[in-house]
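Thought: the user wants the 3D structure for the chain below. I'll pass the sequence to the structure tool as-is, report back what it returns, then summarize two notable features.
Action: structure_tool
Action Input:
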Amino acid sequence: MEVLRWLIPLLAVVAIFVVGARTVLSLRRSEESLICTTCGAQTDTPQSKTRGSFAIEIVLWLALIIPGLLYSLWRQSTHRKVCPTCGNATLIVANTPDGRKLAERFSEGKH
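Observation:
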């Protein structure tokens, strides 16, 4: 029972930190137009994808604090923007020389 006195507040602080980090990352959206090098789709609002499993993250937090913390940090570091059409993380800024060439190539139908 003595463990619960410090474990519950610690888990609450870590949960607040994780939720806050996810919120900050989701607010950092690109205002630039992006183009996918795989499928040629252009978007201003890419999807975000995080590797790993939220269920595993919860189980690790409930089992032990250190593995849960390490897994959460790893998942947050793998957060990336992906194409909403094909799901690949091959987005580049469309308003660059490479982006314009790619857009031209896909508009002509050459893959």
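Final Answer: Structure generated. Residues 1 and 7 are 10 Å apart (CA to CA). Strands lie at 34-36, 42-43, 47-49, 80-82, 91-93.
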